[in-house]
Design a protein that fits this description.
With 186 residues, the chain is an alpha+beta fold. The protein contains six helices and nine strands.
Length: 186
């Protein structure tokens, strides 16, 4: 099975072919895909998490079909002491309440496992839009970049089998990542 790696040069390969599978997210008690993948790659994952309610950016609100209040999980994700990712997740309030994910620690498997248990399974597929874009001032400061230096941004859209978008996560990656995907050639 595919697995994330951390090269001798420190580059983190994020292997999207398997990262969202339950076994990968929950392996050895991991609290989500990031923790599981970094551990498998030999890293030392940790995250600073804040949870609040607020309004999603317009494009995210459109994806969610939610114009009002949403639950926002903002994470600063580290490999050891090095900040390697910023991730903001936007979740409809009813989904967050049903899944019990308004607390910082969401347990083994993270929010995707809690959503599955609450009947909001994202098991069939996920859509991710990847974009190279200029860093914001806040991102540049967090990663030690000059404002406007490029960063990779991944917008993860989690959808149930019935077509409801139950999560939109914006991942902003520091320099030093490689993304791996597979697509059918049929």
């Amino acid at each position: 099975m595919a697995s994330n790696t951390i090269g001798v040069d420190g580059v983190i390969t994020r292997d999207a072919r398997s990262r969202y599978r339950t076994a990968q997210r929950e392996e050895n008690g991991a609290h989500g895909a990031y923790e599981g993948e970094l551990r498998r790659g030999g890293g030392s994952p940790r995250s600073d998490v804040t949870v609040s309610r607020g309004t999603a950016p317009a494009d995210v609100a459109e994806l969610l079909g939610e114009q009002g209040e949403v639950v926002i999980r903002a994470r600063r994700m580290y490999n050891g002491d090095k900040l390697v990712q910023l991730a903001d997740t936007f979740i409809p309030v009813d989904v967050a309440q049903a899944a019990g994910i308004e607390q910082v620690d969401t347990g083994v498997g993270g929010i995707i496992s809690r959503m599955r248990e609450a009947g909001f399974d994202q098991g069939q597929e996920a859509t991710e839009d990847v974009q190279l874009r200029p860093s914001t001032a806040a991102e540049a400061e967090a990663f030690g970049l000059q404002p406007g230096e490029p960063v990779l941004s991944i917008t993860h859209i989690g959808t149930t089998g019935e077509g409801r978008v139950v999560e939109v996560t914006r991942h902003t990656l520091s320099p030093g990542w490689k993304l791996r995907y597979s697509v059918p050639l049929v």
